[in-house]
Amino acid sequence: MAQLGTTDLDIYPLCLGGNVFGWTSNRNESFLVLDAFTAAGGNLIDTADAYSAWVPGHSGGESETILGEWMASRANRDRVFIATKVAKLPQRPGLSASNIRAAAEDSLRRLQTDHIDLYYAHHDDTEVPLEETLAAFDELVRAGKVRHLGASQYTAPRLAEALEISEREGLARYQVVQPHYNLVEREHYEGDLADLCVREELGVLPYYALAMGFLTGKYRPGDQFAGNSPRAAGARGYLNERGIAILAALDEIAAAHAVPVASVALAWLRARPAIAAPIASARVPSQLDALLKSANLDLTTAEVDTLTAASE
């Protein structure tokens, strides 16, 4: 376990993504994945009110609902940390004060809990003054409905501005950042944002940690990709000279440690500046094995450098 930034949350080195719950993973499968994750020591689960509003016939909140039912059935709310988000649900878009208040109550109801451990702005909302957004989040923290705040998909300048406003106005600040970051998508985090996170001691939990499955090693040159799912199409886009070089480096290091390729890709993330834990999801328990192995895999400096060079 390690402290998440400056929060009082001690977390397992892997965060379980809940985007699949109620979507590609049905209720029973979701319960089995959650049981296996927590049995292995996992304690931070990431969801959002918008999961999975993109599915025909869904309205959003499906993931939170399943998670709430699971916690209620296992009576384990005090043993897990729940992260959820506001701003992207079609019925509750943006970061106005009124929307944040209403969305938080909706999430609490679906999660069947009286508090959210980590509440994110799911994306920046430039139509609403940062002061309004931060004051609304601060109100939730002071009411005990939210323990800690996070920012997802913020640029370094906007995040720095938000932190400055919180400091100036005496408001609860963002303590956690959730960027798009992995071996094949480095530009979203590295540079100014990473430097800011290190300087401000922010805990970082990257999403798309396995690049839509590409970094599991499942997709290879010459393979026939089953179906035309968005994930397969996205992963296929990484199969260029650079992507093939990354897979080769991953294969070599995975073989040396006798672990799956995905374990190495996640371990590389953990070795990067300010990263507390990568976020990865599993549709069924069998997919969890590679994710969990990453939590105990510490790469050598040379191995980290090899992967970093391959992905330049």
UniProtKB/TrEMBL annotation:
<dbReference type="Pfam" id="PF00248">
    <property type="entry name" value="Aldo_ket_red"/>
</dbReference>
<dbReference type="InterPro" id="IPR036812">
    <property type="entry name" value="NAD(P)_OxRdtase_dom_sf"/>
</dbReference>
<protein>
    <submittedName>
        <fullName>Aldo/keto reductase</fullName>
    </submittedName>
</protein>
<dbReference type="InterPro" id="IPR023210">
    <property type="entry name" value="NADP_OxRdtase_dom"/>
</dbReference>
<dbReference type="InterPro" id="IPR050523">
    <property type="entry name" value="AKR_Detox_Biosynth"/>
</dbReference>
<feature type="domain" description="NADP-dependent oxidoreductase">
    <location>
        <begin position="13"/>
        <end position="311"/>
    </location>
</feature>
